[in-house]
Amino acid sequence: xxxxxxxxxxxxxxxxxxxxxxxxxxxxxxxxxxYQQALGQGPQFIFQYYREEENGRGNFPPxxxxxxxxNYSSELNVNALELDDSALYLCASSWGGPSTDTQYFxxxxxxxVL
Amino acid sequence: KQEVTQIPAALSVxxxxxxxxxxxxxxxxxxxLQWFRQDPGKGLTSLLLIQSSQRxxxxxxxxxxxxxxxxxxxxxxxxxxxxxxxxxxxxxxxDNQGGKLIFGQGTELSVKP
Lengths: 114, 113
Known about the structure:
The complex is a heterodimer of chains A (114) and B (113).
Chain A (H helix, E strand, L loop, with lengths): L4 E3 L2 E4 L5 E6 L6 E7 L6 E7 L2 E5 L6 E5 L5 E5 L8 E8 L9 E2 L3 E5 L1
Parallel strand pairs in A: 2-11
Antiparallel strand pairs in A: 1-3, 3-8, 4-5, 4-9, 5-6, 7-8, 9-10, 9-11
Chain B lengths: L3 E4 L2 E5 L4 E7 L6 E7 L5 E8 L4 E4 L2 E6 L4 E6 L8 E8 L7 E3 L3 E6 L1
């Protein structure tokens, strides 16, 4: 039991809308990473947060933004949704900082953009 | 730019067979390599992690090897079972920032009873 939860489980939006996805880590997990997984593909790194600060970003445009809160829960916000944003969004957390190898993945949020 | 490739994309085997999944990466300067399992519509479960200084790791019926110089890793599954059916992903970390993983596209494994 990893204890990483994500909400909502599924979400349907239309092109141009904005969406907020949430991730709740285990107590003490101070690092969270977000990934986008398109159908049939491996996950792609979006960004990482460590102690509420962004600590690295993948090749995603600025309309993908995030937050990490003092209780180490996290949000992924996507503005101006595009059809290609349809994917499974995964968060992964760890407790030892960015250099920790072991991460715990949540079950993901399935986003469909129509 | 690091790229990770997995072959085959899909594999179907009868129960009891031993099998090998392949992973290759273009830049040998990796920090570690991990193998994950993903069940349909679910998150990832870490199976094995190999540090760059290691050659292999074993867990139960699973054995993962790493050859950094050739940019290859294999995941060996012994005596496969229907419960092994899932997508297997390999991922590399290019520095000690463990959360920034670069994944392959996965191998979808089906083990038939």
